[in-house]
Amino acid sequence: MLSLHDLHARVGDREILKGLTLEVPAGEVHAIMGPNGAGKSTLSYVLTGRLGYEITAGSAELDGVDLLSLEANERAAKGLFLSFQYPLEIPGVPALTFIRTALNAQRKARGEAEMSAPDFLKRARACAADLKMDFDMLKRPLNVGFSGGEKKRMEILQMALLSPRFMILDETDSGLDIDALRIVSDGVNALRGPDRSMLVITHYQRLLDYIRPDRVHVLADGRIAASGGPELALELERDGYDKYARAA
Amino acid sequence: MVAVKDTVDQVAGLEKYEHGFVTEIEQEFAPKGLNRDTVAFISAKKEEPEWMLAWRLEAFERWSAMESPDWARVSFPPIDYQDATYYAAPKTKVGPASLDEVDPELLRTYEKLGIPLREQEVLAGVTGAPRYAVDAVFDSVSVVTTFKKELAEAGVIFCSMSEAVREHPELVRKYLGTVVPVSDNYFACLNSAVFSDGSFVYVPPGVRCPMELSTYFRINAAGSGQFERTLIIADKGAYVSYLEGCTAPMRDENQLHAAVVELVALDDAEIKYSTVQNWYPGDPETGKGGIYNFVTKRADCRGDRSRVSWTQVETGSAITWKYPSCILRGRESVGEFYSIAITNGRQQADTGTKMIHLGEGTRSRIISKGISAGRSSNTYRGLVSAHPKARGARNFTQCDSLLIGKTCSAHTVPYIEARNGACTFEHEATTTRLSEDQLFYARQRGLSEEEAVQLLVNGFVRDVLQELPMEFAVEAQKLVAISLEGSVG
User: Fold this and answer.
1) Per-residue pLDDT for B488 more than 80?
2) B5 at the A interface (CB within 8 A)?
3) Is A194 touching B (CB cutoff 8 A)?
4) Is it the case that residue B128 has pLDDT exceeding 50?
5) Which among A72, A92, B52, B153 could bridge A49 via Cys, Cβ 3.0 to 4.6 Å?
6) What phi and psi values does residue B350 have, to the nearest 5 degrees?
């Protein structure tokens, strides 16, 4: 599914990714953990095509398609989704309008027919119910005046409606209380499937109690410093990142 | 940074003015230049009565002694008023009685512009679709006014100004110049001397005008200006909604458009006046050509509980200088101003409103959304004032500016004068740059850069678009997109 090889990226003069290699097969959930400044958010932006990051070497492919040569929206149409750490507010644009416009733009790019308004509303209602969100919230301008937890739920709602194949969750647990964490995690787990993969970026092991990863990777100083099973997350929780930070 | 730069290039490189064609038609002109003879020529062409000519000549004398104002944040070389033509009309008879008498070339022009002049075409639409009557003004004359018969049955007078001067002199004499006095300002005074056509609307007491009224202004002739005059009177308890649209061919020289619009609302009357202004903005690179849109629009809420609402979508013109205002004279009268002003390329806009609270318990509301792109300059200038007698007056003002790119500018110049202690004025203003974070967020969800800009801008102007009559809101939304988007490629 996702295949990163010796990826190097810089912002201005500063090299942040220094030869990152990672393989996420179809149907698997991988967690990326690491100390602040290790390059976790940079990785998510490099993969999704945010401008301002210069890729100096390496490759990134999704099912054999070279991601790095595509525009951000073209990558989205290929099924790549990023749940933002800090979702943006979009004044004056109701959430439903935003998501439907995005969905139809993706479908158009893939040569599919637009989804009709009634079909879309039906799906949106069902997704909102699953995430225990008041449907009226979807009629309000996207994320404007929403609490941190509401914004995160809205990210997962968008993810469900856009049904991507590869999902990157950037610090989805930050700003969530225990109840909200459970609801959001249920929402995420519902999207797991044999054709779909996820990269879950997090500081804390807590989220991984709810979203069980197949593999855990430690990202330190711009490359993967260690990989292991779910037990690696527990070890990190106990010992911290010191060992890896020093090694780097 | 790169994203914003792309947007700027995209926007700057745009040359998408869709109405820039010229209609080849035989036209009749006044001799070049401006003097008493020009004024007399125009008056004679319009077969006006003696009193109208005297009114024009007095305006001309006053204008001759006035100086062009220089306080607005716009710059342009001095205008040579002797080098322009003040009357241009298609060579058909003035004020044709029916469409059959209108030159087919003219009809094709309006067809190209998408303006329905054939009533049956309007009616042929979906059942229950909103209908609107049109007064089409081509350079200096009104070429046709539709639905006159049906409106007359409701008692509504909707005709060209020239016709009103001839057919309804008592109404014209009673109201003309009572809202915008002859020598109110330089451009209004010039208009009073040489005004050509425009619309006249009178809605009798208690009548709700059965359809939207609209005027479509088209400047065609080279070297001429357009000086239309519009007068709308809503008598006691009457209601009318009126929309004007404007376009002009792409020409290298600047053309002057100095209009005057006067609205009078008597007791319990309501007037909604909407403008979609898309005059040719000039070349986006060189700034060459384009319309100078120097317009005086004012409403007099003369009656108690009367209500006037101005909505404007200003996307065109090289220079816009206009302040649609309300004199809130009647007790508890209400004035509203909703504006979207977009400048791009080398455009300059200095626009806003004046809310003059004279009566007790008067209320006003101002929502202004300015969007600047390219190398343009966009200024909101507004006055809210309360007279000593205007106790309990209230105003709410919200001015938001959105900047796209780094070479444009936005300015907000609010004036607030409260002459009594019992009024409440609120003013909120924001200036933001189209954020790269928001653009990336939208693009990550699948929108192209162009679609993302369009969605964000539409969100920014939504409060105002909602105030437009439904059928025009869609058109205005498209216009907003066209004004800001270049084709990606």
Assistant:
1) no
2) no
3) no
4) no
5) A72
6) -130, 100
**Interchain CB distance below 8 Å, B445 and A102:** yes
> Of the CATH numbers 3.30.930.10, 3.40.50.300, 3.40.50.2300, 3.40.50.620, which one belongs to the domain with range A2-89+164-247?
3.40.50.300
Cβ <8 Å between B445 and A87: no
Do B462 and A98 make contact, defined as CB atoms within 8 angstroms?
no
Of B445, B461, B462, the CB nearest to A76: B445
Q: What are the structural domain ranges in chain A?
A: 2-89+164-247
Are B441 and A84 inside 8 Å of each other by CB? yes
H helix intervals, chain A:
40-48, 72-77, 95-109, 117-130, 148-162, 178-190, 206-210, 231-239, 242-247
Which pTM was predicted? 0.80
Q: Which two tokens stand for residue A62?
A: 């999704």
On the question of pLDDT at B326 being above 50, the answer is yes
Token pair recorded at residue B140? 């200096």
Cβ atoms of residues B431 and B380 within 8 Å: no
**Whether A35 contacts chain B with CB within 8 A:** no
Q: What is the per-residue pLDDT for A174?
A: 84
Compute the distance between CA of residue B189 and CA of residue B294 in angstroms, rounded to an integer: 12
Average pLDDT estimate for B238-245: 89
pLDDT tens figures, B346-393: 888 899 999 999 999 999 999 999 988 888 888 999 999 999 999 999
Mean pLDDT of B274-294: 81
Residues A72, B459: C-beta atoms closer than 8 Å:
no
Q: In angstroms, what CA-CA distances link B105 with B27, B110, B111, B112, B212?
A: 12, 9, 10, 11, 26
Reported ipTM: the value is: 0.96
